[in-house]
From TrEMBL:
InterPro entries from the UniProt entry: NADH_Q_OxRdtase_chainM/4, NADH_UbQ_OxRdtase, ND/Mrp_TM
Membrane topology: Multi-pass membrane protein
Enzyme class, first EC level, given as a word: translocase
Cellular compartment(s): Membrane; Mitochondrion membrane
Database matches in Pfam families: Proton_antipo_M
Domain of life assignment: Eukaryota
Protein name: NADH-ubiquinone oxidoreductase chain 4
Family stated for the protein in its record: Belongs to the complex I subunit 4 family.
């Protein structure tokens, strides 16, 4: 059994073990789930250790045969880091609920382990139809996580909104896959990569894929589900939603839309530039007006993911590599910010900025970490987001100076809303009329933040070790 197959099946095996553990043994359930997810993270690091940076070929390939189906799973320099990011965040999600989740603990751990398997399968699947199956299957455990363990009374509405928005777009994508199958007789990605589609058919199929991926990104005007889902989801749900699920749409564009339909991708580039710039400016100004900390981070995620779209459709290696780096850095920084909000909510049971103030006096360690991740969200040099945004703007500038200038306004806007939110929480006078008990980070919370600090600075200081691994794969997509 290859390493990749093991990484897919370890969480499922852990979930099956948890089925046979009695519900009242909550500590044992948490320990098993945490150990299984940590083992999977260590296994995923082996992929990076044994990965050959000098080739664009798919590696760790494993073809699975059955009576009615055969498909291949493999990874390249693009999907490698998304698998590692997935296995990194799932143990964090289990740790987040260590003290705060008291109802349905076994189901909570099983949901995240199943979700981990489905997300890993999305990133390593080389069959277009099965990619669609796993792409949609991710909705089921996420729907349950938001609906069952959400923190407010509108959680059921938010869960249905998340499910319906994303499912409706993906049904249109299924029609595109059917058109591909009727023309080629296969949904194998490696065969489709060498297949020529007519210009008219490329435009039609690309549009069906766009309907699905745009909702997942999300792009305006189909972004409404994201702030609602983030606000109503538990902290762990927001972590996995911001860290991985938002990347599925941009990964789909990069893996399928750009290499399989190059003419259509160039044809629709002006439309995508326009939609992305509108999204960046609109959501940035909307973010400044928000009073809920989770909505501030959610709207800023929309802006950052639309910067990723601009980088992807710059159609050069600098812009695409910058987009991948920005996806990875956003997958670290945004979950860290949601963890910060979760720490505040666990103590004060509110996320509204008006009830906070003076936390720097009562929670100094927390405020230092919150400040670091806020600076990273602004793309301060030597932090993760800076490298990604710099490469994206450099790649776009080679194609269109005006688009580069307009999209770069996001750096000014992100500085405004990020510093405003941090100032409301950390500075000013304490408000004992609203909040009567104060406590800094616990030991569990502190050590939960340390890996995020390390990776944020690592991505910002030494990005070359990440860029080297993805360079050949990006060049292959562009046929360089």
């Amino acid at each position: 059994m290859s390493i990749l197959v093991s990484i897919i099946f370890i969480p499922i095996i852990g979930a099956l073990i948890l089925f046979f553990v009695p519900n009242w043994k909550t500590q044992l359930i948490k320990n098993i789930a945490l150990n299984v997810s940590c083992l999977n993270f260590l296994m995923s690091l082996l992929l990076w250790i044994y990965f050959d940076h000098s080739t664009a070929k798919f590696q760790f390939s494993q073809t699975i045969y059955s009576e009615s189906l055969s498909f291949t799973i493999a990874i390249d320099g693009i999907s490698l880091f998304f698998i590692i990011l997935t296995t990194f965040l799932v143990p964090v999600c289990i740790l987040v609920g260590w003290k705060t989740i008291s109802n349905y603990v076994k189901e909570y751990c099983i949901a995240f382990l199943i979700l981990e398997t489905l997300m890993i399968a999305v990133f390593c699947m080389l069959d277009l139809l099965l990619f669609y199956v796993f792409f949609e299957s991710v909705l089921i455990p996420m729907f349950i996580i938001i609906g069952v363990w959400g923190s407010r009374e509108r959680k059921i509405r938010a869960a249905y909104q998340f499910f319906i928005y994303t499912l409706f777009g993906s049904i249109i994508m299924l029609l595109g896959i059917l058109i591909i199958y009727l023309q080629t007789g296969t949904t194998d990605y490696q065969i489709l990569y060498t297949t020529e589609f007519s210009e008219k058919r490329q435009i039609i199929i690309w549009a069906t894929f766009f309907a699905s991926f745009a909702v997942k990104v999300p792009m305006i005007p189909v972004h409404i589900w994201l702030p609602e889902a983030h606000v109503e989801a538990p902290t762990a749900g927001s972590v996995i939603l911001a860290g991985i699920l938002l990347k599925l749409g941009t990964y789909g564009f990069l893996r399928f839309s750009i290499p399989l339909f190059p003419y259509a991708s160039m044809y629709f580039t002006p439309l995508l530039y326009t939609m992305s710039i509108i999204a960046i400016i609109y959501t940035s100004f909307t973010t400044i007006r928000q009073v809920d900390l989770k909505k501030i981070i959610a709207y800023s995620s929309v802006a950052h993911m639309n910067i990723v779209i601009i980088g992807l459709f710059s159609m050069n290696s600098i812009g695409i590599e910058g987009s991948i780096m920005l996806m990875l850095s956003h997958g670290i920084v945004s979950p860290a910010l949601f963890l910060c909000v979760g720490v505040l909510y666990d103590r004060y049971k509110t996320r509204l900025c008006r009830y906070y103030g003076g936390c720097v006096h009562t929670m100094p360690i927390f405020c230092i970490l919150f400040c670091l991740f806020t600076m990273a969200n602004i793309a301060l040099p030597l932090t993760a987001n800076f490298v990604g945004e710099l490469l994206v703007f450099q790649g776009v500038f080679c194609n269109n100076t005006l688009v580069a200038f307009l999209s770069a306004t996001s750096m000014i806007c992100s500085g405004g809303y990020s510093l405003l939110a941090y100032g409301r929480v950390a500075y000013g006078s304490c408000k004992p009329y609203y909040i009567r008990s104060f406590s800094d980070l616990s030991r569990r919370e502190f050590f939960m933040f340390i890996p995020f600090v390390v990776v944020t600075l690592w991505l910002g200081v030494t990005p070359q070790c990440f860029l080297d691994a993805m360079h050949c794969s990006v060049a292959n997509i562009l046929n360089i």
